[in-house]
Fold:
Amino acid sequence: MNKKTCIGCGVELQDQNMLQEGYTTNLENDFCQRCFRIKNYGEYQVVAKSNEEYIEILKEVGKTKDLVLYIVDLANLPRDINDIKAYLGKNPVILVLNKRDVLPKSVKEEKILSYLKEQGALYEKMILVSCRNNYHIDELFQLIQKKQKSRNVYVIGHTNSGKSSLINLLMKNYSENSSDLTISPLPSTTLNKISIELNDHVTLIDTPGLVDRGSLTNYIDQATLKKINAKKEIKPRTFQIRKNQCLIVDDLVRIDYVEGEKNSFTFYLSNSLKVKKMNALKQTKLTDLAKQTVEMKYYEDLVINGLGWLKVVSKGTIDVYVDKNVEVFTRKSMI
Structure:
């Protein structure tokens, strides 16, 4: 007899050990206790899961040659957008750029796609979507039907990229399946592969999200995580800044302008975050955090992984104070 799995996270249900994955008080339940509490009470129980386990699942996907949807958060693009392809062999991959509603409406889609191509994105098909307003979901589903190699279509991506939200929307739009996946803004919500039959021709297979260890989202509490996750269109905030001035983002990041001529800094962050300009020589706030010195070129973005980015117009030297585990890098300006 096939053992029952949780329809929220994909883990095999068990009623023997409440400290183990998949625990439920009744094996007839559809959700494990962890998913039930996430779904109904917004509570989250941390599960230690290594990326090595997730990578093994991706390698299994790579042996199938089936169509793969790689879901990416537009507001938090990976440093190397091609990195995940190394595990996928010859699978055809559609790059699904999620959360279009978060980027300013003034940014043209053609510009974003051209930017990614210029940065070397190795994907035959790329599409911008938004689960929040059902944007381009019909076009994505048509693309899936056109490109699929079998009925199985795998869904991959980093944690918090919106994989479960997208699958739930596809289920709502194109399936009579009434169950839904557990959605949480925290890492490791999906713990195993979950198969969802949309119709007689398409079965979506959700996979665990890869945890980006360089992302700020791994080092903050749940309340702060909800705050930094942009839910509405980002309103860019521009500051004219001179040498020895600093910009402080809530209690998360401090950016000191160490050297350079008068400059223009534009933040692309959640509207819920506060940014303050101060005198760097008189302000010691957040200087206890790890410091990274960055040399900025003309029209570059300073990306703080998991938080957003800062567009800089002129070259200059910047000191970034942030949690020591958080990745900070530069790229050519996206907008």
Q: What stands out?
A: The mean pLDDT is 88. Residues 32 and 71 are 25 Å apart (CA to CA). Residues 47-212 form a domain with the Rossmann fold fold (CATH 3.40.50.300).
